[in-house]
Amino acid sequence: MKATQRDFLTTAQRAVRTCTLWYFCGPDEAGAALAASRAIALLPEAGERVELAVAELKADPARLVDEARSSSLFDGVRHIVLRVTGDDALKAVETFLELADLGETTGACPVFILASGATDKSRTAKLLIDRKDAMVAMFHTPDIEDVKKEVRAMADAAGLRYSGDVIERLAHSANLDLRLARTEMDKLALYLDASPQAPKLATIEAFEAVGARTEENDVPPIVSAVLSGDLRRLPQQLARIRELGINPVQIVLALERRAAQLAGLAARYSPRDEVMAFLERERVFFRDRRELATQLQRWPTHKLDRLVTRLTDLHRTLMANSQTAELLLAQSLVQITRFAAANRR
Predict the structure, then answer these.
(1) How far from 218 is each of 210, 228, 248, 249, CA to CA, in Å?
(2) What is the chain's Cα-based Rg?
């Protein structure tokens, strides 16, 4: 069974009665994570959430089916969440399906696999996509209209009445990341004490009172210090993150965007070029040129590739560990800044 963001909710409402294995993939990891949460909410009884480590499954591919079947041995209901990269869970899924085809997974709890860097063409997806007891959900990067539609659905579920202006502002502030949009919507509903039973009107004023602080003011100095390798400024920026309560995910999103910008510039930059003249030819905003020049010197192409991978992994880790996100972020920012400081060319 297959779905995309366009028809996922409708398909999931039918699939929840028959599907045991759910596989979420595609470039929009935020949308995939949100869809997994919605699928879990559709379960008649979600019960205990069990997260398995990929390393355990690589060592013992039968561990997944053993954990899923163990739910029937206890009174408590459970579901399993597994976060993987690519086809890391392939052997475990193959083992699960072999036993399912023998009728030995009756009563197994549902398993939700969030696959980073995978698509519906991956080997794992191909095992599942034509089965009636499995769901492959593929999520492409959303455009702003997709995000606004999702934000409206979140507002309705939270008991918020709204105008188009509020939806527009919230969608843009989330930078197309549905996880960040959900965080901001939850904060807004809590601020207004809204619920489906007692709806409240969400105004621009309320959004500005509790919404994510604008990136124009708070996040750029952090990105600048980290990617420029400025160890002297870093302690001040770490203190600002704590004092202002800046969302760790928002910081990583900004770092990811700057890393992507640097990667694009580095691919076109030649050491024979004078860097400021090169940035002017690239029509880089004049106030950003000096900082980008420094960062291009710190991050050659091969090291940018490693940085992009590191930031993607950090983003995923923060979403899975919200209670320790600030500590995990601070540790990573120190490591990246030190790495950049050592990359003088």
Answers:
(1) 15, 17, 12, 13
(2) 22
Question: Distance between CA 142 and CA 124 in Å, rounded?
Answer: 24
Question: Which SS3 state, helix, strand or coil, does residue 22 take?
Answer: strand
Q: Which two tokens stand for residue 116?
A: 């980073």
Helix axes 220-227, 289-298, angle to 10 degrees: 40
Separation CA 296–CA 292 (nearest Å): 6
pLDDT beneath 70: ranges in the chain? 71-76, 175-176, 210-217, 322, 344-345
Q: Name 323's Cβ contacts closer than 8 Å, sequence gap at least 6.
A: none
Q: Give residue-wise pLDDT tens across range 193-209.
A: 889 899 999 888 888 77
- Given CA atoms 53, 130, 118, 95 in this order, what sign does their dihedral have? positive
- 54 Cβ partners below 8 Å, 6+ apart? 82, 83, 84, 85, 88, 89
CB 92 within 8 A of CB 57: yes
What would the pLDDT profile of 277-311 be if each residue is shown by its tens digit?
Answer: 988 888 887 888 899 999 998 998 888 888 888 88
Distance in angstroms (rounded) separating the CA atoms of residues 84 and 334: 26
Domains of the chain by range and CATH? 2-138 (3.40.50), 144-210 (1.10.8), 215-341 (1.20.272.10)
Residue 284 is predicted with a pLDDT of: 80
Helix or strand (DSSP H, E) at 113: strand 111-116
81: part of which helix (H) or strand (E)? strand 78-85
pTM across the whole model: 0.56
- Which DSSP symbol is given to 321? -
The 3-state DSSP class for residue 136 equals strand
